[in-house]
Amino acid sequence: MSPPASSSNQPDVTQLLRHWRDGDESARDRLMEIVYEELRRQAARYLRRERPDHTLQPTALVHEAYIQLIDQSRVSWESRAHFFGAAARLMRRILVDHARTHQAEKRGGGEEKFALDEALGVPEGKDLNILALNDALDELTRLDTRQSRIVELRYFGGLSIEEMAAVLEISPATIRREWNMAKVWLYHQIKKETGQ
Amino acid sequence: MTPERYQRIKQIFQAAVDRPPTERPAWLEEACVNDAELRREVESLLADADEVETKPLLDSLALPALPNMSLLEPRLGQLIGPYKILRELGHGGMGTVYLAERADEQFKQRVAVKVVKRGMDSEEILARFRHERQILASLDHPNIARLLDGGTTADALPYFVMEHIEGQPIDVYCNTHKLTTDERLELFRTVCSAVHYAHQNLVVHRDLKPTNILVTEAGTVKLLDFGIAKILNPEMFPETVLPTRTWERPMTPAYASPEQVRGHVITTASDVYALGVILYELLTGQRPYQFKGHAPHEIAKVVCETEPDRPSTAVIRATTLAEAAGKTDGGAAVRLRNQLKGDLDTIVLMALRKEPQRRYASAEQFSEDLRRHLDGLPVIAREDTFKYRTGKFVARNKLAVVVAAVFALLLAGFLMTTLVQSRRIARERDRAQLERDKAERVSAFLADLFKVSDPSESKGNQVTARELLDKGAERINTELKDQPEVQATLMDVIGEVYIRLGLYDQAEKLLDQSLRTRRQLFGSEHGDVASVLASLSNLYHERGEYGRAEPLDREALAIRRKVYGNLHLSVGKSLHDLAITLQITGKRDEAGMCWQESLAIKRELYGAQSEQVAGDLVSYASYLSDGGDNDGAEAALRDCIRILRQHRAPENLDLMTAVNNLAIVLGRKKNYADAIPLHRELLETKRRIYGAQHPDVALTLNNLGNTLRLAGDLTEAEPIAREALAMRRKLLGENHPNTTLAAYNLGKVLIAKGALPESETLMRQALNAIQKANHTEEDVAFYQQGLGESLLAQRRFAESESLLTASFQTYQAKRGVRYRRTVEVLNMLVILYDQWGKPDQAARYRALLSN
Lengths: 196, 851
Fold this sequence. Notes:
The structure holds 2 protein chains of 2 kinds.
Chain A: H1 13-21, H2 25-49, H3 58-69, H4 77-105, H5 116-119, H6 130-143, H7 145-157, H8 161-168, H9 172-193
Chain B: H1 3-18, H2 24-31, H3 36-54, E1 79-80, E2 83-92, E3 95-102, E4 110-116, H4 122-138, E5 147-152, E6 158-163, E7 168-169, H5 170-176, H6 181-200, E8 213-215, E9 221-223, H7 228-232, H8 258-262, H9 268-284, H10 296-305, H11 311-324, H12 331-340, H13 343-351, H14 363-374, H15 392-396, H16 398-423, H17 429-449, H18 455-458, H19 465-479, H20 484-501, H21 504-522, H22 527-543, H23 546-564, H24 569-584, H25 588-606, H26 611-626, H27 630-647, H28 653-668, H29 672-690, H30 695-710, H31 714-732, H32 737-753, H33 756-772, H34 777-793, H35 797-815, H36 820-836, H37 839-850
Antiparallel strand pairs in B: 1-2, 2-3, 3-4, 4-6, 5-6, 7-8, 8-9
């Protein structure tokens, strides 16, 4: 119930978030640096732990980071959405980095399984290859930046339609339409790429 | 593809999606006129869109079901079900609690809505909630906040609706109202009575703490969140909990009992413990334990291994510190200390004992003792004697611990029975009511057994578990004469406990009696008759009387087929039992058919990739391997491992067993090159989970050593076999069958290396030890062979001959000539007589071999 204790040597993250909301872009950079560190630390912890019956849920990590870093009573709902919007991209970067390193050192063992494979309905029995998703998303960015941003916000940030609407400043109805197509296209694309 | 092209596809796709499927083709034709490629693109996307929507696997892609969809909390004014959120009341590890009111009613009822946070398995929580809600909703006690409703939010998060209580946590209330010690005790007794009421309804709280116990301004106590912890995370079976997971359960370390932090079975006794911590805090203002860190193992160490200060000591210590800081005068503290010293110290510490069964038997008894203290009467609680110091208890009282754990499981089992039955109410209301009464009476009786209410009984002498059981068996006969169904059920229960304790004669008597009663009540074709038959068959298995088990297994199977039809889990279970019996009695062909039918049933009921199938595959593989079909066994195990890996983490016990068995089967195929890495991998996993010294680590060391020996790598094998033996001697004692086996295995390495005198010593020790322990004839035959081999290597033929012959005769009688071990001994006998210069005898055994 109490706000997270802010340690003395760290800048006030909540303050940074508010400055950013007010248009201060340097606050954004500083904020992202801290959030990235926090996310990376937590992702590393989760990925190391090999929890039975649990898969990594990137959105849960983002949420966890938010709880850790931000005094929730001091920020508006729109600021929250912004935070998650930015954190989603960082989360994607972390997962892709991890998958790359992991792939490099993989020795025939089972690949890491993320909750993502449930989220993205990749053909039966196949784990979602995070790198395949990343490639497909890159391709989608080239074709339709807005759709790719929506996917990113949703998969890696866990934002709802309304929250995405707030971050991207477009109507919820449009978000819904774009999302509906984007997920079908991604599914199509990954299926094609993984030869299923 | 260019972005422009994509936009074009998007335009057509989105327009097509908005049209009814029947109109799409015509529309597409029109829209894509002159561009067949565009039309193909859109059509394939549309096909995928249907797949995304319809395939169950892909459901999660559809918006409402995506896990962790929204990360924002419900907001003011938003609706959760029919409840409108007014404000946040607080949040904790499990989620957030809101004040809300029902929007659609004339009078506005204020409620507390608890929304479970994301990241927890919503579907499972909901299933459990539906399962338990009837019982929880029926908890009707003036001091328990009622559970009113539950469901899922628009974001698919589970929520619970509870009576809203305006009040202060009990500790805050006591302090702001400056209650005296006696007033605090009275208030606390109300808490006990509410907890006891819930326990009688078979609901354990699991997360009692001051913030869950509110006191209203009018002074009424209300307990919150009864049963919620269990819905959020039930751990009925302790073996499924690996140490690494301990912290994922909802609990509050300061109030968690040793069994809770260890992940063991949680019972009503865990609530009694939490009550003890709360009382400690109410009386002294201190908590019994100070934790230095937050790491689970640190907390577990403190909770399980240190003794709390007496409450009277804690008061003084805390005051001395405060006094030194000039904050208080010591006078009040000394008065408080004098109040606590004696009875209250003893009572609180009794509730805080490490072993669940040594605490108060119930919250009511705890409360009663406080009443006695308040009335100036002698209390039941006694000081802990030195022999029950932490950690020593388990070693000295294994029996009691086993019994307590078994009872806890059985009680849990009855709770499930009650729940399952309450679901059936719609269809057979009367029958269900009867069963429920029966189940409740049974559990009340069992719970009662542990309640030693006569103070003279609990003084000094601890009642042994065995005495409790015997007394229970006696009471069933006298007290439950007019309730034969309850009587029979209890006989089964106590009979099962006797079996687990190895008291087979007592078990047999009860189970026979229960069988007779049931046949009288229901006739011979009834599911309950089949269950008793299955229990009796288990009993004969334990005794090694497989011949007697077989007809029982057959009868149980026949009954179940008739009662439930061929495609039923209980038929599968009977087939499983019968298969094992037949396998042991050498009726291999029929056993194989049973396995196949059992597997077929489980595949049909649960799916080919289910854990149930995997469970059968492990046993089936043993069957195949025992029959020499190691290729079949390898295939079954690989199949099993593949299935389990889909469901389980590498540390899962079943998975580790399967990997272990695969390694052994590969060893039997002499494919040591593949077997050894599997053993090593397993060793690594186990060391990671269990630490360096653990019986399971010893097991794998043992297997690894053995495999290395067979692979001919004696240099590697010897230190490993020595480590296994040393570890088992230390952990299990010299005469434990597993220690004996490790001695045998080291003996085998030493025979191969030619270190014969030491091998003889080990083999002799092993043979002696096994004869002292609980053993079968085959066990003895096995070690006779070991010693015989060592003597043979030393060319002490006559001594060796008598041992090997005895061993051979046992194996031949029990398992026949084709059995793997029979063949091994035969080979040894042939060598023996060849070397001894007795060609006739050698020829005789050779002839047996070639048969």
